[in-house]
Specification:
Blueprint: H1 3-16, H2 21-24, E1 32-41, E2 52-59, E3 69-80, E4 89-91, E5 97-103, E6 110-114, E7 119-125, E8 132-139, E9 161-170, E10 176-185, E11 214-218, E12 224-227, E13 243-244, E14 263-265
Length: about 270
């Protein structure tokens, strides 16, 4: 683990307590942990004031368990650029998909967002193919109630370096292989709380890359939308018409942006 990752995880523990993996040892199943970071750069397009950046990460097929298992993203942090206060922009204390169950089932993949707890759960059939949504984060426009970690009145320049770090727990020691991307939207679901963007249910986030039907639900299986298309995992289906060039996307149908190079880590520490 490099020093930057170690510092970020230390800050997380000090601010928010131990991540969820710390309680898994109480269960019958042993969970193994690892941490991974990916550094990449936005494209050259400027990001205008009033827009939102949507970050999303996805598990690649090479990191998908070969038998029934659970992957539990514990934590992630995104840092980039420099704000007027001298600090980098950050997405942190946002929920990754708190529990991903890979199951022997012919049912449709299902991603559920729970409004009251600002949390996600995902159930994915084995051998489905394609990527699986891991985490999402919004950098919204600045407003009277949010003055940092937001897009300022002057917008943001292109070519910013961005580091995305994720911590995982897994019921297997199979390597986790993932990547991430970011896209810019001229209109987006508003954050329900300032300084900690919530309310992701309105986005209609797609669970998987696979073009077979997948469900995006809010709070229960009785409130779901079904998507049968080839959009990337993490696509905010309800806001696709507002995509503009910026971050890792050139616009058009590149709804998540072009993915970074992949990274991997092997869960080994119980």
């Amino acid at each position: 683990m490099n020093n930057n990752v170690r510092r970020m995880l230390t800050v997380f523990v000090l601010l928010f307590g131990l991540p969820p993996a710390s309680i898994y040892s109480q269960a019958a199943t042993t969970y193994y942990a690892c941490t991974s970071s990916i550094l990449s750069h936005f494209n050259s397009a400027t990001i205008p004031a009033g827009s939102s950046i949507w970050f999303s990460a996805a598990l690649l097929p090479a990191g998908t368990p070969s038998s029934a298992a659970s992957i539990v993203p514990n934590f992630f942090m995104i840092t980039f650029g420099q704000q007027s206060n001298g600090l980098p922009y950050e997405c942190r204390n946002y929920p990754p998909v708190n529990w991903i169950s890979f199951v022997n089932s012919s049912a449709e993949p299902q991603l559920t967002y729970y409004t009251s707890t600002n949390s996600w759960k995902e159930t994915i059939p084995l051998n489905l193919g394609g990527g699986t949504f891991l985490a999402g984060c919004t950098i919204p426009p600045c407003s009277s109630s949010q003055t940092f970690d937001c897009i300022p009145a002057g917008g943001l320049p292109g070519n910013l370096p961005v580091t995305f770090t994720m911590a995982f727990a897994s019921s297997t020691t199979q390597s986790i292989v993932w990547h991430w991307s970011a896209a810019v939207y001229s209109q987006f679901a508003p954050c329900s709380e300032a300084e900690e963007c919530q309310g992701f249910g309105a986005l209609g986030v797609k669970a998987v890359d696979n073009s077979n039907p997948s469900e995006s639900c809010v709070n229960s299986s009785s409130s779901c939308s079904t998507y049968s298309n080839s959009d990337n995992a993490g696509t905010p289906e309800n806001f696709k018409q507002y995509l503009i060039p910026g971050a890792f996307s050139t616009g058009g149908t590149n709804y998540t942006g072009t993915y970074t190079a992949e990274a991997s880590c092997t869960p080994s520490t119980p």
